[in-house]
Amino acid sequence: MTTNKDHIYRFRIKGSISPMEFNSFLQKRTTDVIIEQAREVDLPVANLVLLDNQPDLPLGDTLVITLGSHFTGELKSSVLKREEEYKIAQELEREQLRLRREEEAAEALRFNESLSIPVLWTPDIKIVMSGLQLHSNGSGFKKNTVYHVKLLEDLNDGRLKRQRGEFLCSKEKGALDYINVDDNHLIEKKVTCKACLKVALRFK
Ligand SMILES: [Zn+2]
């Protein structure tokens, strides 16, 4: 039988288990051992024998023994390779997420600029405390959060009159105390309120 370097070797226990060693093994969960015999591994907790259908162990390599429903072993090199691959995959995923967020932010910025609103404004949400607490996605915002145009300056355009702090879609006053004009932390959020967008059409 040819050995596959990623093979999970399965063992049975030869003889008895040492109860004291067994507890310390359970706490460590795995143990490394250098392979000295083709079909047996001697651990302080017990002597393990490969099941008949298992390939021989490669002498001299390091085996990582794990106890699940039974004892299994995997070559240390395979474990390290798997951990490395996992790390790379995680990094790649993080990088892709970062790029996607950047693209979304750039797209939101392009869209918001295209609204051509003649005064300073910021995208903002209307805060509903109960909803915020019950359905938050961890960032404090609901996933389907609607972003409105909130004015940071008074707006007088014919019949359209809004004061600083009001939304374009309603005279409802949003909180301004946490908005700093220089701090555009919400600027990369695309305006999605249909009513705000309808009013914004007049500036096109
Ligand atoms: Zn709105």
Layout of strands and helices, then pairs:
Elements lengths: L7 E7 L4 H10 L1 E5 L5 E3 L4 E4 L11 E6 L3 E5 H39 L6 E4 L4 H6 L13 E4 L3 E3 L2 E3 L31 H7 L4
Antiparallel strand pairs: 1-4, 1-6, 2-5, 3-4, 5-6, 7-8, 9-10
The structure holds zinc ion (ZN).
Strand percentage: 15-25%
Largest sheet: 6 strands, antiparallel
Number of strands: 10
Fraction of residues in H or I helices: 25-40%
End-to-end Cα distance, whole Å, is: 74 Å
Detailed description of the structure:
The chain has two domains: 8-76, no CATH class; 115-203, no CATH class. The chain starts with 7 loop residues before the first strand and ends with a helix. The protein has four helices and ten strands. The chain has a six-stranded antiparallel beta sheet with strand order 2-5-6-1-4-3. It has a two-stranded antiparallel ribbon with strand order 7-8. The protein has helices at residues 19-28, 76-114, 129-134, 194-200, and strands at residues 8-14, 30-34, 40-42, 47-50, 62-67, 71-75, 121-124, 148-151, 155-157, 160-162. Residues 148, 167-169, 193, 195-196 line the site of zinc ion.
